[in-house]
User: Fold these one by one.
Assistant:
Number 1:
Amino acid sequence: MKVILKIQEAGLIVLLLALFACKDALEPEAIRRGEAPGVVRNFSSQPIPGGAVITYDVPEGRDLRYVKATYTLDNGTVRESKSTVYKNTLTVDGFGQAGEYDVKLTAVAVGEVESSPVIVRVTAGTPSHLLVAQSIDNDNNFYATFGGINVDFVNSTEGNVVIKILIRDEQNKWKEIQAAYTKAKQGRIRVRGLDSVEYTFGIYVQDRWNNKSDTIIRSLTPYFESQFNKALFREVRLPGDTWDYHTGQGRARNLPVLWDGLHSQNGTIFQTKPSTVIPQYFTWDMGIKARLSRFILYPDIPPSDKNVYAGGQPSVWELWGSNSPDSDGSFDPSWTRIGTFYATKPSGLPLGQVNNDDIAQAKNGEEFEIEGNVQAYRYWRWRTLANWGNVTYIAFAEFTFFGSVEE
């Protein structure tokens, strides 16, 4: 019995030795090894963001299968890019900086038989993540707003990037508070929920190869929001402000009715004469220099609340600001357009049809946010472009403005 066991052990050892000896033979091999292809020649390149497109003559060789580029990124990662025999271009990308890089080009035949390599020196364009970071590194694009900050960016190459927003904590360490993944051509990132105290913010942009921009640092104080005191508002008449209130409408009053604090159903309203044309303008002085954050429009709610989102109630208008309006009433150059605003009917029903959601919004007022890095202004101009009923007059009850007063 012992003899049999020893024979089995010996046989197992021989089998294992044979397996190790044949290890290389067990690796899959190509069915056929082709002839070595010719060397890649007559190459040129054009820069793209973070890379280049290389053009070349397709090498000779009946067994040619593809051309490959081998190159090293800034972080030490070695990458390959391949192109079939049906194309004469290939793309190398992922470089973290604009500049010159060496790329090894090799033609590959059946059985992975390679030609002699050639080195191509290409010029990479500025990568997308750095272009996005450059667009942010501007006081007009990285700025304080109400309750936080706004970050406006431009991504002209539509590269896949992530924008990381950091804040310095009590221990003077960076803490990520928001990340935005995007390939949009442009956009805005909003950070909200912060107190009106100074913070140190940092922003960097990263691409899909983990290349990172330098950190852009700003010390910013979010604005504290309050409602503006309507008792300070005053009517201003400028040439071009051709409106007059409609004396034939018993509820109509002059311009100051818009800030009398009364916006209840079936109350007094601002309504212009039917002979007034659209667009039409009116101007007022807020009494203080103020940076707007938002405003609420209270439409006219007639005796029948079924008539909301009709008649002269504004549907599209512009808001303009100035600190020294030209006495001739011209918009350019003394006025700055703050934005174009569109009233929204919650139900989306046709003219003359409303539901409870429409009526509720009309009674509560519709809120509009001021977008972007808007400066502080004292004088304001409302320019109505369209109304719900497509009529020649405008009518609404009240507006209320919020923001911060410039000291």
Note: Confidence is low (pLDDT under 50) at residues 1-7, 19-27.
Number 2:
Amino acid sequence: MQKQLRIGVFGTWRGNAYIKAAKYVDGAVITALCDKAPARIESAKNNCPPDVAVFDNFDDFIDSGLFEAVFLCNYFHEHAEYAIRAMDKGIHVFSETMAASTMAKCVKLCRTVEKTGCVYMLAENYPFTRGCLEMKRLYESGKLGKAMFEEGEYIHPMSPEESWKYNDPSVHGDFHWRRYLPVTYYCSHALAPIMHITNAVPKTVVAMAAQDTDEHIAKYKNSRTDCVGVMLLGMSDGAVCRINGSSYIAPHGNWYRIGCLAGGAETVRGDEKRVRVVYNAWSTPEGEHRDSVYEAQWQADADKANANGHGGGDYWVVKHFVDAVLEGKPCYFDVYRSTAIAAVSILGWRSVLNKSKRYDIPDFRRERDKKKWENDELTPFPSADAPNTLPFNSRDKI
């Protein structure tokens, strides 16, 4: 009999995409949903087995005993505390966005994984689009030579109307995370594909931000963060990497590039399925074109990937998670790579606030790095219970 993994979903707005993806993954069964919004629950139920259980609070949901794994699709900056609670109960965790919003939570998250032995995976989907997977295949072939410079961009402007839909306090309250999101914090879509392609991790970060204009802030009718945040990273393989994550400039889109000693590759702007590969005139491998552009193809599961969102990435992250739990296969974005990305976000913001000071990215496998950061709870996100302890834009004083 085929092994099955019972999965609960916490947060059914973004979670609904993963519920749909789970239908294409052997062994994945959605058994419970949790959301405070009845309309979102009803929409998600349409993609679940008829006997799926429904909860409106996390306490009853996590204590139900109805699942061995959970998709955490709650608010962007609140994943770590729920992941820790789940793993303390022996429940494996698929975390949809930022692993942790403070350095101390990064430490607690790593210690919980080490203590419980649970599978933890960041559901970062952009590394698993066709273009990025093809760039990884090319790089691992060795034909491009060693990567020395990389670039990753995730640009996501919104119209005033769309922004207000996400930020309206009458709907979302006074503390919705998008109103207080520093421009470096949503960096995973820019950085993670580069890490996956080159198999390197960030070691240092420096950052700068471009402030929004008063006219633009007034137009959006809310407390705006900065427009642009750019980070320069020193990578573990000696390369330098520039990332621009979630900036509010035109035009919308993702783009990735690796510059190597023999050649380079990049996704085509505006069409992430297409890849451009260019070699030096003197280092073009025999049988290769010096300059070519082509559409990348899936190496497996094309129909399943094409049926799902984020360029097929939603399917692949669910499959990798289920395979990790049921088959013991390693997941690439484990707790250490995931908290490294979070540390880039957090310390990149400290760099912005401190005149582009350089920060070392900790390796949370090491106890001395855990000890250094275990009490650092500085945060730009206010809540009903506590004010923010860092500015969320570069206009304000520390």
Note: The chain has two domains: 5-122, 126-299+335-373.
Number 3:
Amino acid sequence: MKLTILGGGGFRVPLVYGALLTDRAEGRVTRVVLHDLDARRLSAVTRVLAEQAATVPGAPEVTATTDLDEALRGADFVFSAIRVGGLEGRAHDERVALAEGVLGQETVGAGGIAYGLRTVPVAVDIARRVARLAPDAWVINFTNPAGLVTEAMSRHLGDRVIGICDSPVGLGRRIARVLGADPREAWIDYVGLNHLGWVRGLRVAGRDELPRLLADPDLLGSFEEGKLFGVDWLRSLGAIPNEYLHYYYFNREAVRAYQQAEKTRGAFLAEQQARFYEEMRRPDAAALTTWDRTRAEREATYMSENRESAGAGERDADDLSGGYEKVALALMRAIARDERTTLILNVRNQGTLSVLDTDAVIEVPCLVDANGAHPVAVAPLPDHASGLVCSVKAVEREVLAAAESGSRTTAVKAFALHPLVDSVNVARRLVEGYTAVHPGLAYLG
């Protein structure tokens, strides 16, 4: 079975390959094709993968190419993890927004809109190529903003594109761990959009254990989200929000923390990864060791500004392991071998949330089998959550419309309608600022 990884020179690709190395069952991935526009990055990542596979008999064969059509032909699965504009683009997204006093995070608010505007046209081109060159392939999208990009691709690939994210998985794992439950045996009632969802229940053997957590202040304040949001706010909500909702519930504090930071997250990662790829130019560099060291630093500093503004302290060691690669492997196995499982995924609504239309991509538990991912029925969201979901989905639709039409006016509308952008004039200046620094937004006329 052939897996094509788009963004194959990306820093986190070894996580995906490492997960593949643990799969020894029949029908597993035997060929991995890495595609990237940067041959130097491809070479560096290929070296890391070679060291990972050195002691694993029968490891999947790895090849690399800068030819997209060649990479896609004959693929059974396509894993999309591209970053249009690179980390330098992310740093621009952050700086332009913060200069206007609004959030520049890569998937939330102004930064997420800017990232989406330059990513959607590229993702749509990829979707069209997949439909032509590998019509039977399943596309697993990890490209951010994941829900928005998955919806853009679904207009050309239907339900054969599925978005994944590690945030809901990590959140459910943390809640189960605090409650003394096995995450593999827990049903997580999680509903929303990507980076905009809530855990409303965690059932073990048919019993919802979340009320027990919400009733115990010490227990509730003992894990990441309790520290980040505060016990009183979580009890008020009666649910545990995805960590990215901190940008909404504590927006002023988050913006202030980012403005006061020595450097933005994008700038930090750009410098860090530049050092990694530069070091990998040395033929004698220990590829896997260098990558491991860089990854540990990256994970430990994740959302550090939010944790600092909330007084949440350092991340727990158990939360430094990521997890999206395990979701990707579980998804591929379920489809390829009809190994039925339940995963929280980004899929088309299909009537699951009544406040959204059928084609809106949402993030909910799905039953996965050989025919793909099927969203399960969920209870309606409370009004405050429904309002936020509908508002952000409306913004996503304006981003898709702007990307399709090239309308600068529609792009301004997308920014202006976002809950975290508080002025039409700010929206206009944001579009001016972003088009000035991003060549990829030159299509906005």
Note: The radius of gyration is 21 Å.
